[in-house]
Design brief:
This protein has 171 residues and is of the alpha+beta class. 58% of the residues lie in helices and 26% in strands. It folds into two domains: 1-70; 73-170, Ribosomal protein S6/Translation elongation factor EF1B (Alpha-Beta Plaits). It contains three helices and five strands.
Length: 171
């Protein structure tokens, strides 16, 4: 028979041995699976967030497309022609383009009326020659209104003449 001291010693040796065996088989696997679960739940939240972001981006894309469609890109050719005309006339007439606003478009029964607002600066005779060249020689449209304004530059103490043209084109 084995005495109690020996049984106690055997039990004390077996307890750490059983703990190591249990750790190797059960606890380490549980810890690994818990880490994988944590990583997968993080990826799942990212995927759910990705779907929300994708939906937001697709709605934003649709919104931007509708805004871009509202802009009429047919005016680019006329605008480029106007810029090249003013570029050619600036040396000849000493007239400079100060402002070239986007065109204003009105839909009419007969077609579309496109109005360009252009601000020029120069002397009176140069402005008149430029307006004449623009309306009669280049046939882009008709001048609907010309507003001349004398502006005094307080820094240089010189006066400048600015002209705002409203050029109408029917399409």
């Amino acid at each position: 028979m084995i005495d109690t001291n020996t049984k106690i010693k055997v039990v004390l040796v077996m307890i750490p041995l059983l703990a190591i065996i249990c750790y190797n088989f059960a606890i380490s696997n549980t810890i690994d699976l818990y880490g994988q679960h944590k990583e997968l739940s993080k990826n799942e939240s990212q995927i759910l967030n990705l779907n929300q972001r994708l939906a937001a981006l697709s709605s934003r894309e649709a919104q931007v497309d509708s805004i871009l469609k509202s802009f009429s890109l047919n005016h680019n050719q006329t605008e480029n022609n106007l810029i090249s005309i003013f570029d050619g006339l600036k040396n000849e007439n000493q007239v400079f383009v100060m402002d070239f606003n986007p065109p204003h478009t009105v839909d009419l029964d007969q077609g579309t009326l496109v109005t360009y607002e252009i601000t020029l600066e120069g002397d009176f005779s140069g402005l008149l020659r430029t307006i004449f060249e623009l309306e009669y020689n280049h046939h882009i449209g008709r001048i609907a209104h010309v507003h001349l304004q004398k502006i005094k530059d307080r820094r240089t103490r010189k006066s400048k003449l600015q002209s705002t043209l409203y050029l109408e084109e029917y399409k």
